Automatic annotation (TrEMBL):
Domain MacB-like periplasmic core: 37-230
Source taxonomy: Bacteria, Pseudomonadati, Campylobacterota, Epsilonproteobacteria, Campylobacterales
Domain ABC3 transporter permease C-terminal: 288-413
Primary localisation category: membrane
Organism: Helicobacter ganmani
Transmembrane segment boundaries: 31-57, 285-312, 333-366, 386-405
GO cellular component, one term: plasma membrane protein complex
Official protein name in the record: ABC3 transporter permease protein domain-containing protein
Pfam families reported in the protein's UniProt record: FtsX, MacB_PCD
Entry-linked InterPro entries: ABC3_permease_C, Lipoprotein-release_system, MacB_PCD
Domain of life of the organism encoding this protein: Bacteria
């Protein structure tokens, strides 16, 4: 009765002793120890590369999402064509959804022309003050415009009817400066005595925005509402749509659609669905490919344990004849394989953390700041990705240790001792 409480302790000590013994460098058969070291390094490098790669993929995903989110707006309300969006609808939305921010707009397609060069453009007529509260990129450009106007004229800036704010790429292509003139040719036709001619108007460059994405910096131009309402011959209180800012766009778009079924609402994720689907597919493919590194490293764990079992056949047979159970032998090799794999996972995680800290703190790898908006790598490791990496790694390590451990319990002590 007194021996039963101490039996589990004795078993644990025996298993711990055997694990330490088998981890020691085997001078008689050094290849076994070398294989174990390679297994450790393989798991370590695999986990490290996988964590860093997922942080990079997540960082670039979030960076592109942030830029596309800013320029596309969380929610956009668009007139269905049968019922126009006017100031009364805007006021009703503002009173009903006080937690949202709204900016009405009028849009037109046009061709910008300066000298012999021409570029297609999407022109947005907006209220500069309202738009600044929704779009940080536009807000920065508008604040610079106000500051420059204050320095040059000593007066607060007031948007003129035909002022525009253009993107950095368009400004560089045309060599534009503040107060430069830019000709816009609109698709809206103006009747003349003999035919219909496109509407052409010179606009004054009042500011320059920089979104970090060439497609937007080249193709988007902002002007005030009155400009496009005048060109499209719209009443001052009628709009093509409303830009809406929301902290929870997927939830708020459902509420808006419920209250305004006659208006079409588009979420930012719907405007770039194919792009983000491609990024998600690329991320999953990269995760699977890099997880194969850990899987290949786990083969070294299997090889190392099987060679240990084969080289210790006589010792295992003696232990079994002395009363050591098959379960204890199995646990010994399970713990041995898990120790090699788990230590590799932990060291790989520590190395990955050090690499991420260095990459985020110092410009070791420089990016073109004019394209990405920053010269540092965008890094962001989500808890879900980290959890999947750890779960997958632990699962592979545990599975790799099971077969050699089971093989060790299948040794026949009588046959081994007879042959030895």
């Amino acid at each position: 009765m007194q021996s039963s409480p101490t039996a589990p302790t004795q078993n644990a000590k025996l298993i711990s002793f055997l694990v330490r013994r088998y981890l020691r460098f085997n001078k008689a058969q050094p290849f076994i120890s070398v294989t174990a070291i390679l297994a450790f390094l393989g798991v370590c490098i695999g986990v490290m590369v996988l964590i860093v790669a997922m942080a990079l993929m997540n960082g670039f995903d979030k960076e592109f999402e942030r830029k596309l989110f800013i320029m596309n707006y969380p929610i956009t309300a668009i007139s269905s064509g049968f019922e126009a969006i006017n100031s009364s609808v805007l006021e009703e939305m503002e009173s009903r959804f006080k937690h949202l921010r709204f900016s009405p707009f009028v849009q037109m397609q046009a061709i910008s022309k300066r000298g012999a060069r021409m570029e297609g453009a999407m022109i947005f007529g907006v209220d500069f003050e309202r738009e600044s509260k929704l779009n940080p990129i536009f807000q920065t450009a508008f604040e610079k415009t106000q500051k420059a106007h204050q320095q040059n004229f000593g007066l607060p800036y007031e948007a003129n009817t035909f002022d525009i704010i253009v993107g950095k790429t368009l400004q560089q292509q045309y060599g534009l400066q503040l107060n430069s003139k830019l000709l816009l040719i609109f698709t809206h036709l103006t009747p003349t005595a003999m035919s219909l001619t496109p509407t052409m108007k010179h606009f004054n460059v009042a500011g320059i925005f920089d979104s970090g994405l060439i497609a937007y910096d080249k193709g988007y131009i902002y002007t005030n509402l009155e400009s496009l309402q005048t060109i499209k011959e719209l009443p001052y209180n009628v709009y093509d749509g409303i830009h809406i800012y929301s902290d929870d766009a997927r939830k708020d778009i459902l509420a808006l659609q419920k209250h305004y079924p006659q208006i079409h609402f588009v979420g930012w994720w719907e405007q770039n669905g194919n792009f983000f689907a491609a990024l998600a597919l690329e991320k999953r493919a990269l995760f699977i490919v890099l997880m194969l590194i850990i899987l290949v490293a786990s083969l070294n764990i299997i090889s190392s344990l099987l060679m240990t079992v084969m080289s210790r056949r006589k010792e295992i047979a003696l232990l079994l004849t002395m009363g050591v159970s098959a379960t204890e032998i199995k646990k010994t090799f399970l713990y041995l394989g898990n120790f090699i794999g788990i230590s590799g996972i932990l060291v790989g995680g520590i190395l990955a953390a050090i690499i991420l800290i260095l990459l985020s703190s110092f410009p070791i790898i420089s990016l073109p700041a004019d394209v990405y908006g920053s010269d540092k790598l965008p890094l962001e490791l989500s808890l879900m990705d980290l959890g999947l990496i750890l779960i997958g790694s632990f699962g592979i390590v545990f599975s790799s240790s099971y077969y050699p451990a089971k093989k060790a319990t299948q040794i026949d002590p009588l046959q081994v001792l007879r042959n030895e």
